Prior knowledge:
Elements: E1 2-7, H1 13-21, E2 24-30, E3 37-42, H2 43-50, H3 53-57, E4 60-64, E5 67-78, E6 85-92, E7 99-108, H4 114-117, E8 121-125, E9 129-134, E10 143-146, E11 156-157, E12 168-169, E13 178-184, H5 192-199
Parallel strand pairs: 1-4, 2-6, 7-10
Antiparallel strand pairs: 1-3, 2-3, 4-5, 5-6, 7-9, 8-13, 9-12, 11-13
Amino acid sequence: MKVVAKTRTVHGSGASRRLRLSGKVPGIIYGGNGEPSAIEIDHNPLYHSMRVEAFHSSILEMELDGKSEQVLLRDVQWHAFKQQVMHIDFQRVATDRKIHMKVPLHFSNQELSPAVKQSAAIVSHILTEIDVSCLPANLPRFIAVDLSGLSAGHPLHLSDITLPEGVTAVLHGNDNPVLVVATVKGGGDAEEAPAAAAAAPAAKPAAKAPAKK
């Protein structure tokens, strides 16, 4: 995806306010081998790009003053109650340096899983994106997660999926987070309920009260 920007020559809160009133968004581009640069972008094209998932998780082509470079979206500030982008940050990409990025998870075949077909379970997506580290050329737009083997009582962990070549997960305290769980309506998991019933001892008949003399 492409972003067209211009170098911003005016600075300060007053200048930024005037830019927004004229339909522009103030921003900054930093990192790589260049110095941080203040930029401005037309609001409407940017707003529509922000509605596309790939804009948030892929390498973007930025045309800055007619010159092209690769960047990543790093931060966006929105108006408190308007659908208006107030400020935006981009980071330059160096082809030989690993990047750290959030990548969305795309789930498929949920309706074909034993959890749904056999147990009528409710499938919950605990994580919808994960942090990854890789070289820019290896950055995936999304990571596919096949749920056709999901069963109630067996959560799907990060270790259960295969990441694209050259991509490693960046973990934060949990070395194997849960991605998806399947819960049977009304309580326990489908596979545990029969076992629990079988293991439960037969109820003893209630003791009769002694007869009155």
